[in-house]
Amino acid sequence: MKPSTSIQDYLKRIYELTENGSPASTNDLARELNIKPASVTGMIQKLASEKPALLEYQKHQGVTLTSAGKKAALEVIRHHRLLETWLVQTLGYSWDEVHEEAERLEHVISEDFERRIAAALGHPLRDPHGELIPTADLKMPLDDSTPLSALRKNQSGKILSIKGADADLLRHLDGLGLTPNTMIEVTDYSPFDHNLSIKVNKKNIVLGLSITSKIFIEES
Amino acid sequence: MKPSTSIQDYLKRIYELTENGSPASTNDLARELNIKPASVTGMIQKLASEKPALLEYQKHQGVTLTSAGKKAALEVIRHHRLLETWLVQTLGYSWDEVHEEAERLEHVISEDFERRIAAALGHPLRDPHGELIPTADLKMPLDDSTPLSALRKNQSGKILSIKGADADLLRHLDGLGLTPNTMIEVTDYSPFDHNLSIKVNKKNIVLGLSITSKIFIEES
DNA sequence: TATAAAATTTAGTCTTGCCTAAATTATTTT
DNA sequence: AAAATAATTTAGGCAAGACTAAATTTTATA
Ligand SMILES: [Mn+2]
Ligand SMILES: [Mn+2]
Ligand SMILES: [Mn+2]
Ligand SMILES: [Mn+2]
After folding, report:
1. pLDDT band at residue B192 under the 50/70/90 scheme
2. Which domain holds residue A40?
3. Could you tell me if residue A61 is inside a domain?
């Protein structure tokens, strides 16, 4: 059976929160889902005790996805990212507008719809934010990108993706020309505040850690 | 507040069932919605007693839409028919495949999405089944079509629309060449069984009432 | 017009998914 | 290591929207 919309959103957030390897905490999930922690506890207990469990859960220790849970999460993420790509390409959405629409559509499109847009788009590898799109057989491609925040003076590369869906940040970056596929070069690093000076399109700008940690680079 | 998916489906069905002027009965609604009559009674009582009532309801007399209810119904119908048109045009769905997909998407697209597909399609007047699409300000255009079942020998015209969403019937009609915009001519009428003999694309076929009552014609 | 059949409503229950308040466990601070 | 704070879980509740079984009302039939 296909998981409910709520469950799909839980699984997707858990996937994202556990990408770093550590379990997702009740509170982090509650914050991401805009649901009270007590409710999250209830749901994760339920998901952990389904016939094929979707989560691995130990009281007070947070949760990780089982392989069944990961598969379900990747299904939703594939829908989301293909939809974003589709909306931008065919309806002229800008990259900061698509997220909310995809957030609702992802739960209701059929597998047939998924196949049709994937084919129409030529089976794209990345969405408009540069995020990798899980394959049709639900594997997440390897990500060889580095956060901009890890680069130092004289290192350079191409922007691959912007993580996190905050529309205001996306519009701000768009204004600075910081979009996927743009070449950048680090011209200076400031310790203590971790500011980076970078050159983009001949212009020099300075970015704080809260921005550089969300921009991912393919080094060159 | 936007009505829930369930409520939207109730309103849409009530709109369709009351197009002939008479109220929609509890049982008819239950059949159309695949919901037990007892549940339908509960829902229509609720909808009839909302702050601005969506339904006019009198016990045992069925329901009709108030103007607020009609507006909400037309919103959903506009979404549905624009979506069907868009899916056929941009993703190559055939006219017998689109209905189910639109049935789910209609509840989750934004008004922005609605505007974008309407514009991309050039503000179409009819969907792939020939059904009229409510306008952006939620008026249903006048329908000047006649059911094929009302035509008699030597009358002719163009197929405007096929009512009812049964995919099997649509595929059958497609096989016979009976699609919107096709010209037809009635060559004979058989009383008692109400069969019509018609000429389409040079071929003669005989159709029963259960089919002719679903095909709508612009007489010529 | 009395009875039978069909349609509709009432009453009570269930599931899903959320909430608040209170209790418990884990983590920091002193 | 105790006390304070933070995180998490438990307990109890609520709203939406469906269901079944039983009661009622309407309509059709004899
Ligand atoms: Mn899929
Ligand atoms: Mn979502
Ligand atoms: Mn629907
Ligand atoms: Mn609309």
Report:
1. confident
2. 5-65
3. yes
